[in-house]
Amino acid sequence: MFTGIIEALGKVVAIEPRGGDVRLTVTSSQMQWQDVALGDSIATNGVCLTAVELPGNGFVADVSVETLKMTTLAQWKKGQAVNLEKALTPSSRLGGHIVSGHVDGIGEVIAREPAARSEKFTLKAPKALARYIAHKGSITVDGTSLTVNEVNGDEFSLNIVPHTLQHTIMESYQAGSIVNLEVDVIARYLERLLQGDKAAEKTAGSMSDISTTFLAENGYL
Predict the structure, then answer these.
(1) pTM for this prediction
(2) How many CB atoms lie within 10 A of CB 211?
(3) Which residue has the higher pLDDT, 112 or 196?
Protein backbone atom coordinates (compact mmCIF):
# COMPACT_ATOMS: atom_id res chain seq x y z
CA MET A 1 0.00 0.00 0.00
CA PHE A 2 1.01 3.59 -0.66
CA THR A 3 -0.06 7.13 0.27
CA GLY A 4 0.23 8.91 -3.08
CA ILE A 5 2.85 11.27 -1.68
CA ILE A 6 5.72 11.14 -4.19
CA GLU A 7 9.13 10.58 -2.59
CA ALA A 8 11.40 11.06 -5.58
CA LEU A 9 11.66 11.41 -9.32
CA GLY A 10 13.30 8.55 -11.16
CA LYS A 11 14.40 7.83 -14.71
CA VAL A 12 13.67 4.85 -16.94
CA VAL A 13 17.08 3.58 -18.06
CA ALA A 14 16.10 0.30 -19.72
CA ILE A 15 13.00 -1.41 -21.13
CA GLU A 16 13.73 -4.94 -22.29
CA PRO A 17 11.15 -7.19 -24.00
CA ARG A 18 11.10 -10.58 -22.27
CA GLY A 19 8.97 -13.25 -23.96
CA GLY A 20 5.87 -11.09 -24.36
CA ASP A 21 6.26 -8.94 -21.27
CA VAL A 22 8.91 -6.44 -20.17
CA ARG A 23 11.80 -6.04 -17.74
CA LEU A 24 12.08 -2.43 -16.54
CA THR A 25 15.05 -0.68 -14.93
CA VAL A 26 14.59 2.60 -13.06
CA THR A 27 17.23 4.69 -11.29
CA SER A 28 17.00 7.71 -9.00
CA SER A 29 19.60 9.83 -7.22
CA GLN A 30 16.85 11.36 -5.06
CA MET A 31 15.56 8.11 -3.53
CA GLN A 32 17.08 6.54 -0.41
CA TRP A 33 17.66 2.92 -1.46
CA GLN A 34 19.33 1.58 1.71
CA ASP A 35 16.08 0.24 3.20
CA VAL A 36 14.75 -1.33 -0.02
CA ALA A 37 14.97 -5.14 -0.18
CA LEU A 38 14.35 -7.63 -2.95
CA GLY A 39 10.62 -8.25 -3.24
CA ASP A 40 9.67 -4.80 -1.97
CA SER A 41 6.95 -2.86 -3.78
CA ILE A 42 7.68 0.48 -5.41
CA ALA A 43 4.96 2.62 -6.99
CA THR A 44 6.25 3.90 -10.32
CA ASN A 45 3.90 6.44 -11.89
CA GLY A 46 1.28 4.79 -9.71
CA VAL A 47 2.02 1.24 -10.84
CA CYS A 48 2.94 -1.15 -8.03
CA LEU A 49 6.10 -2.97 -9.16
CA THR A 50 8.16 -5.62 -7.34
CA ALA A 51 11.91 -5.13 -7.12
CA VAL A 52 13.62 -8.25 -8.51
CA GLU A 53 17.11 -6.70 -8.69
CA LEU A 54 18.71 -3.83 -6.77
CA PRO A 55 21.70 -2.33 -8.61
CA GLY A 56 22.27 0.20 -5.80
CA ASN A 57 20.87 3.35 -7.37
CA GLY A 58 17.53 1.96 -8.49
CA PHE A 59 15.59 -1.22 -9.09
CA VAL A 60 14.65 -3.73 -11.75
CA ALA A 61 11.10 -5.08 -12.11
CA ASP A 62 9.27 -7.52 -14.34
CA VAL A 63 6.12 -6.05 -15.89
CA SER A 64 3.30 -8.44 -16.80
CA VAL A 65 1.13 -8.39 -19.91
CA GLU A 66 -1.85 -7.33 -17.75
CA THR A 67 0.07 -4.32 -16.42
CA LEU A 68 1.13 -3.34 -19.93
CA LYS A 69 -2.53 -3.50 -21.00
CA MET A 70 -3.99 -1.53 -18.10
CA THR A 71 -1.39 1.23 -17.68
CA THR A 72 0.66 3.72 -19.66
CA LEU A 73 3.77 1.59 -19.19
CA ALA A 74 3.52 0.17 -22.71
CA GLN A 75 4.23 3.71 -24.00
CA TRP A 76 7.15 4.49 -21.67
CA LYS A 77 10.46 5.42 -23.29
CA LYS A 78 14.05 5.14 -22.14
CA GLY A 79 15.10 8.37 -20.44
CA GLN A 80 11.66 9.52 -19.32
CA ALA A 81 11.00 10.71 -15.77
CA VAL A 82 8.70 8.80 -13.41
CA ASN A 83 7.18 9.37 -9.97
CA LEU A 84 8.46 7.02 -7.25
CA GLU A 85 7.10 6.03 -3.84
CA LYS A 86 8.16 3.19 -1.58
CA ALA A 87 5.45 1.15 0.15
CA LEU A 88 4.20 2.63 3.41
CA THR A 89 5.16 1.18 6.78
CA PRO A 90 3.15 1.10 10.06
CA SER A 91 4.99 4.26 11.14
CA SER A 92 4.38 6.16 7.89
CA ARG A 93 2.28 9.31 7.85
CA LEU A 94 -0.80 8.86 5.68
CA GLY A 95 -0.44 12.28 4.11
CA GLY A 96 -2.41 11.45 0.97
CA HIS A 97 -4.98 8.66 0.87
CA ILE A 98 -4.95 4.86 0.71
CA VAL A 99 -3.42 3.90 -2.65
CA SER A 100 -3.05 0.28 -3.79
CA GLY A 101 -0.83 0.81 -6.81
CA HIS A 102 -3.32 -1.16 -8.92
CA VAL A 103 -4.10 1.17 -11.82
CA ASP A 104 -7.77 1.20 -12.87
CA GLY A 105 -7.32 2.76 -16.28
CA ILE A 106 -5.68 5.37 -18.47
CA GLY A 107 -6.83 8.99 -18.53
CA GLU A 108 -5.90 11.92 -20.75
CA VAL A 109 -5.02 15.52 -19.98
CA ILE A 110 -7.31 17.62 -22.16
CA ALA A 111 -6.47 21.12 -20.89
CA ARG A 112 -3.98 23.05 -18.76
CA GLU A 113 -4.26 26.66 -17.70
CA PRO A 114 -2.81 28.98 -15.01
CA ALA A 115 -4.83 29.50 -11.82
CA ALA A 116 -3.01 32.18 -9.81
CA ARG A 117 0.23 30.47 -8.68
CA SER A 118 -1.25 27.02 -9.32
CA GLU A 119 -2.07 25.20 -12.54
CA LYS A 120 -5.51 23.86 -13.38
CA PHE A 121 -5.55 20.56 -15.22
CA THR A 122 -8.65 19.05 -16.81
CA LEU A 123 -8.55 15.33 -17.42
CA LYS A 124 -10.83 12.85 -19.15
CA ALA A 125 -11.35 9.46 -17.50
CA PRO A 126 -12.57 6.22 -19.09
CA LYS A 127 -16.36 6.22 -18.88
CA ALA A 128 -16.31 3.08 -16.72
CA LEU A 129 -14.35 4.96 -14.04
CA ALA A 130 -16.30 8.23 -14.07
CA ARG A 131 -18.81 6.92 -11.49
CA TYR A 132 -16.03 6.65 -8.88
CA ILE A 133 -14.76 10.23 -9.26
CA ALA A 134 -16.43 12.65 -6.86
CA HIS A 135 -16.23 16.38 -6.18
CA LYS A 136 -13.64 16.88 -3.40
CA GLY A 137 -12.89 13.17 -3.48
CA SER A 138 -9.45 11.62 -3.87
CA ILE A 139 -7.89 10.28 -7.05
CA THR A 140 -4.41 9.04 -7.90
CA VAL A 141 -2.81 10.39 -11.09
CA ASP A 142 0.51 8.75 -12.01
CA GLY A 143 0.87 7.79 -8.37
CA THR A 144 0.15 11.26 -6.97
CA SER A 145 -2.69 11.62 -4.45
CA LEU A 146 -4.85 14.55 -5.54
CA THR A 147 -8.17 16.19 -4.68
CA VAL A 148 -10.84 16.50 -7.37
CA ASN A 149 -12.04 20.11 -7.65
CA GLU A 150 -14.73 19.75 -10.31
CA VAL A 151 -16.52 16.90 -12.06
CA ASN A 152 -18.45 17.11 -15.32
CA GLY A 153 -19.44 13.73 -16.71
CA ASP A 154 -16.24 11.82 -17.44
CA GLU A 155 -14.10 14.96 -17.11
CA PHE A 156 -12.62 16.27 -13.88
CA SER A 157 -10.29 19.07 -12.88
CA LEU A 158 -7.39 19.41 -10.44
CA ASN A 159 -5.64 22.48 -9.05
CA ILE A 160 -1.95 21.71 -8.65
CA VAL A 161 0.17 23.87 -6.34
CA PRO A 162 3.79 24.80 -7.20
CA HIS A 163 5.31 22.28 -4.75
CA THR A 164 3.55 19.36 -6.45
CA LEU A 165 4.57 20.63 -9.88
CA GLN A 166 8.19 20.83 -8.78
CA HIS A 167 8.36 17.41 -7.12
CA THR A 168 6.39 15.24 -9.56
CA ILE A 169 6.21 14.73 -13.32
CA MET A 170 3.06 16.89 -13.52
CA GLU A 171 5.12 19.87 -14.70
CA SER A 172 5.55 18.02 -18.00
CA TYR A 173 1.82 17.42 -18.55
CA GLN A 174 0.23 19.07 -21.56
CA ALA A 175 -3.01 18.51 -23.47
CA GLY A 176 -2.75 15.01 -24.90
CA SER A 177 -0.61 13.55 -22.11
CA ILE A 178 -1.81 10.13 -20.98
CA VAL A 179 -1.76 9.22 -17.29
CA ASN A 180 -2.43 6.31 -14.97
CA LEU A 181 -5.58 6.65 -12.86
CA GLU A 182 -6.48 4.85 -9.67
CA VAL A 183 -9.85 5.68 -8.13
CA ASP A 184 -10.52 5.74 -4.40
CA VAL A 185 -10.58 2.13 -3.16
CA ILE A 186 -13.41 2.96 -0.72
CA ALA A 187 -15.72 3.74 -3.64
CA ARG A 188 -14.88 0.35 -5.16
CA TYR A 189 -15.73 -1.57 -2.00
CA LEU A 190 -18.85 0.50 -1.36
CA GLU A 191 -20.24 -0.41 -4.77
CA ARG A 192 -19.59 -4.10 -4.11
CA LEU A 193 -21.22 -3.97 -0.67
CA LEU A 194 -24.30 -2.24 -2.06
CA GLN A 195 -24.84 -5.20 -4.37
CA GLY A 196 -25.56 -7.36 -1.32
CA ASP A 197 -26.40 -10.96 -2.20
CA LYS A 198 -26.38 -10.10 -5.90
CA ALA A 199 -22.60 -9.72 -5.69
CA ALA A 200 -22.33 -13.53 -5.59
CA GLU A 201 -24.20 -13.90 -8.88
CA LYS A 202 -22.06 -14.14 -12.01
CA THR A 203 -24.10 -11.45 -13.75
CA ALA A 204 -23.41 -9.03 -10.90
CA GLY A 205 -19.90 -8.24 -12.10
CA SER A 206 -20.96 -5.45 -14.43
CA MET A 207 -20.27 -1.92 -13.20
CA SER A 208 -23.72 -0.93 -14.44
CA ASP A 209 -25.47 -3.01 -11.74
CA ILE A 210 -25.69 -0.13 -9.26
CA SER A 211 -28.32 2.37 -10.37
CA THR A 212 -30.73 4.80 -8.73
CA THR A 213 -33.48 2.20 -9.16
CA PHE A 214 -31.36 -0.48 -7.48
CA LEU A 215 -30.59 1.83 -4.53
CA ALA A 216 -34.28 2.72 -4.12
CA GLU A 217 -35.39 -0.90 -4.25
CA ASN A 218 -32.91 -1.83 -1.54
CA GLY A 219 -33.74 0.99 0.84
CA TYR A 220 -30.75 3.24 0.22
CA LEU A 221 -32.85 6.07 -1.25
Answers:
(1) 0.87
(2) 9
(3) 112
